[in-house]
Design goal:
It comes from Tribonema minus. Keywords: DNA damage, DNA repair, Nucleus. The protein is an alpha/beta fold. The chain folds into 2 domains: 210 residues, Ribonuclease Z/Hydroxyacylglutathione hydrolase-like (Metallo-beta-lactamase, Chain A); 151 residues, Rossmann fold, CATH 3.40.50.12650. The strands form 4 sheets. A 6-stranded mixed β-sheet has the order 5-6-7-8-9-17. It has a 5-stranded mixed β-sheet with strand order 4-3-2-1-18. Helix 4 packs across helix 5 and helix 9 crosses helix 10. The radius of gyration is 22 Å and the shape is globular. Bound molecules: zinc ion (ZN). The site of zinc ion has 5 residues, from loops. Zinc ion binds next to loops.
């Protein structure tokens, strides 16, 4: 019986009774309905709190858990995916001892991932289901911490001085995702960040520690930092958005939008000022208003994907994004495995395993099916 990962469009009780939801993004929970009755759904506690269903089975991170799939024992370990809150990679150890890692969506930063998920240090993976959102050598955006530094510098520059009260900073965010960027800017500037009541309710489900929740406010008149849907970060919608709010400051002279996405990298940069850190941001202006494109991605860059494959050395790689045909999937695998085969000096620190490479066959998948 297969285990279905993020593939609720394929769900049928005759096919499987065991499902995994890696995180609460629509392209992963799509197909999951309120009348769900196809079987158990495993996920992390934050993810399952957000979705709510009697069929949900929360699993703790970094804790091997025994489940039964079609009568066969499987050991499952949820790992932090370094993506949106609650997002997990899922490690499956089958009854024959084979290991499969389905990453869901993830941002591979080797140091961060190994620190959060020590089990990754000593794996001999048979199969890696990989988030290939940025499987193209053009996407080599910087680490998140550098983008956070650059954003802090840019926002700080706009808020500095007497014009501060007439400047509004809008952070674009998904319903879930990009939180670390605006929270870190707020924390480092000693300010709170406005979120509307619906977003606040969502974030309450995550049960963050009090020191993090205290950075949030639902009073938009109390702070120049606001979180808005990412689609609002454009001219002139940004200005309309600001004017529509019943804030004390309704006549903002300058509206600054922060548009965080990996897709912005490669555009014009250098307009931010404030030193070399701000030069990471792209900059567009219209009148007094500014939009910064921040290459703040919660998916892995191409360089990071290569590093992931190089480090984990799976026998087989299965792409899960932008691989709608077998040809596209094969091309992604070939690109990654050939790049990963190039030696790096840093690999000296990697414990040796017998299964090098990973140029296995690929199949197009929008979700992932692991045979148990
Ligand atoms: Zn996602």
């Amino acid at each position: 019986m297969p285990i279905i990962v993020d593939g609720f469009h394929y769900a049928a009780s005759e096919l499987s009774r065991v499902y995994f939801l890696t995180h609460m993004h629509a392209d992963h929970y799509g197909g999951l309905t309120r009348s769900w009755d196809c079987g158990l759904i495993y996920g992390t506690e934050p993810t399952l709190r957000l979705i709510g269903s009697q069929f949900l089975r929360p699993l703790p991170l970094n804790t091997p858990t025994h489940i039964t799939v079609g009568g066969a024992p499987v050991v499952v370990t949820m790992l932090d995916a370094n993506h949106c809150p609650g997002a997990a990679c899922v490690l499956f150890e089958m009854v024959d001892g084979s290991l499969t890692l389905h990453v869901g969506d993830f941002r591979w930063d080797r140091e961060t991932m190994l620190q959060m998920n020590p089990v990754l240090r000593a794996l001999q993976l048979d199969c890696l289901y990989l988030d290939t959102t940025y499987c193209d050598a053009r996407y080599t955006f910087p680490p998140q911490r550098q983008v956070i530094d650059a954003t802090v510098a840019a926002v700080s520059q706009h808020l500095r001085g007497s014009a501060h009260a007439s400047t509004l900073i809008l952070f674009g965010a998904y319903s879930l995702g990009k939180e670390r960027l605006y929270l870190e800017v707020a924390r480092r500037l000693g300010k709170r960040v406005f979120v509307d009541k619906a977003r606040h309710q969502t974030l309450l489900c995550l049960r963050w520690p009090p020191e993090t929740m205290q950075l949030l406010t639902t009073d938009q008149s109390s702070t120049p930092l606001w979180v808005v849907p990412i689609s609002h970060i454009k001219f002139p919608a940004m200005r309309t958005h600001a004017a529509s709010r019943k804030a004390l400051q309704s006549d903002f002279k300058c509206v600054v939008g922060i548009q965080p996405t990996g897709w912005t990298f490669g555009g014009a940069r250098g307009g931010g000022g404030g030193g070399s850190a701000a030069a990471l941001l792209s900059c567009r202006r219209q009148g007094a208003d500014v939009i910064y494109g921040a290459p703040y991605s919660e998916h892995s860059s191409f360089t990071e994907l290569v590093d992931c494959v190089r480090y984990l050395r799976p026998r087989r790689v299965v792409p899960t994004v932008n691989c709608g045909t077998a040809e596209k999937a094969r091309a992604q695998v070939a690109l990654l495995t050939s790049a990963a085969a190039q030696p790096l000096l840093s690999d000296a620190a990697r414990p040796s395993v017998s299964a090098a490479g990973g140029a296995g066959s690929a199949q197009p998948l929008s979700g992932g099916i692991v045979e148990a």
